[in-house]
Design goal:
Blueprint: E1 45-48, E2 56-67, E3 71-79, E4 89-95, E5 116-118, E6 121-122, E7 128-138, E8 143-158, E9 165-168, E10 172-182, E11 185-192, E12 195-202, E13 266-267, E14 282-286, E15 295-306, E16 311-318, E17 324-334, E18 349-358, E19 364-374, E20 379-394, E21 402-405, E22 409-419, E23 422-429, E24 433-437
Length: about 450
């Protein structure tokens, strides 16, 4: 087997910016004298499954992984094929356990488009390797499902019991899955994945106690410095006045539930069930669209509606457009932002203002200066601003439609802004993590 690749991904060039000052948001695991990679990010690793009698074959294999010590970011997946002939392979990925998918993994609509569709490369160990189109992020403590399919068969080991741990890589666990005779058709038997996973881990930053003073403030006098390439035309009307308001009962079918975190906080699910915990329990909810966040904006505005009980938001996990330190602000206001002048800074309450080292495809957690309490059945609007840009997912739904929900609240489609409190632009779904208590 080839040695583990310890080179950093090309997305973090050798000329990356120097490490931020000590009062910046950085995780405690930052390596000394290592400015070439972001704080909390491990070297690239390769895990090969333990020896198995991979004498079974099928055209489809689905299995699950659970991140343990931190966020797991997958760069490529290798596997054993029936023979060495070139053949087209599809790799599908979705957060959550496929046993909770509407079709229990047997419906292509459960998965969405493949994250790899092509001919995998040969490796020196005799495996085939699919270098993914984009890295895949499994947030800490959460489950994700993978489905391999192809015209020629994959080799695997016969599993004893589905959904039990088959391999433990230390950073994540692999669970016994299922083989299908054909693509999305006819389950054959329990299956243990045989192959390898190339990945790195990321331990998210948390907010420091002391907050450095900033020379910039999110006021109209500083907007021109945020994006000198943009014109200064007047802002269009933020929203139409006739947008209907949806009730929490109109939540669409969402991604499958996520498994509980191994930390003291319980991981909420990607649907309406699970999440655990009683009163005053700390929870974490990761939006099911985090791996689809490919667009960036200076600001993302959206709203959250609580369900049957009070919710207190304590922090957010966000992604940056690139690996850079950025001034970040987070604001909130009670009610939907269609009900007040959302382009007036004075209408919002600032709950976070600091410099944060952001990175693409990595969720960086920030702790709010004060909790945002949403009463039962109430709505709060949030506005996340990053001088260097924040990632979001583009939406084809209408503004204020519900696009995701936990057991405790619903998230509604919002809008981006090209500048702070100026120039509403595109329909947007917040993509990230929400830390909260009930």
């Amino acid at each position: 087997l080839p040695p583990s690749d310890t080179l950093m991904p090309s997305t973090f060039p050798s000329g990356s910016p120097s490490l931020p000052p000590s009062d910046t948001l950085i995780p405690s695991t930052i390596p000394s004298g290592s400015p070439s990679k972001p704080p909390g990010k491990s070297p690239t690793k390769k895990f090969i499954t333990t020896d198995k009698n991979a004498d079974q074959r099928a055209k489809g294999i689905m299995y699950q992984l659970q991140a343990d010590t931190g966020d797991v970011i997958i760069e490529s997946i290798s596997f054993k094929k029936k023979d060495d002939r070139n053949t087209n392979v599809q790799v599908y990925f979705q957060l959550g356990s496929y046993q909770d998918f509407p079709g229990q993994g047997m419906d292509p609509n459960d998965w969405g488009p493949p994250v790899f569709n092509g001919t995998p490369a040969r490796t020196s160990s005799g495996l085939r390797e699919a270098a993914l189109d984009d890295v895949l992020t499994i947030p800490k403590g959460e489950m994700a499902s993978i489905y391999l399919s192809g015209k020629r068969e994959f080799m695997f080991g016969k599993g004893v019991q589905e959904f039990t741990v088959a391999d433990d890589a230390g950073d994540f666990k692999i669970f016994t899955g299922a083989a299908t005779k054909n693509v999305f058709q006819q389950r054959l038997m329990n299956a243990e994945f045989f192959g390898g996973i190339t990945y790195y881990t990321y331990t998210a930053a948390t907010k420091v106690t002391s907050t450095p003073s900033l020379s910039l403030s999110p006021s109209s006098s500083t907007l021109s410095s945020l994006s000198p390439n943009e014109d200064d035309t007047s802002s269009p009307s933020l929203l139409p006045s006739n947008v209907p308001s949806l009730s929490p009962s109109e939540v669409p079918s969402l991604s499958p539930s996520l498994s509980p975190s191994s930390s003291s906080s319980s991981e909420d699910d990607g649907g309406d069930g699970g999440g655990g915990g009683g009163d005053n329990s700390a929870k974490v909810y990761t939006t099911p669209n985090v791996n689809k966040a490919g667009a960036g904006a200076k600001g993302v505005m959206f709203s959250i509606t609580a369900k049957s009980k009070e919710v207190s938001i304590t922090g957010l996990g966000i992604m940056g457009e690139e690996f850079k330190e950025s001034d970040v602000w987070i604001y909130y206001q009670y009610g939907s932002y269609e009900d007040f002048d959302a382009l007036d800074e004075g209408e919002w309450v600032e709950v976070f203002k600091d410099k944060v080292l952001l990175a693409p495809n990595v969720l960086v957690d920030v702790e709010l200066d004060e909790g945002i309490t949403i009463p039962a059945d109430g709505t709060v609007s949030l506005y996340v601003v990053s001088k260097k840009g924040v990632l979001y997912t583009e939406s084809s739904d209408d503004q204020f439609d519900i696009y995701a929900a936990s057991e405790d609240f619903s998230l509604r489609v919002g809008t981006t802004t090209k500048k702070e409190f100026e120039k509403p632009d595109k329909l947007a779904e917040f993509a990230g993590r929400i830390m909260y208590e009930t």
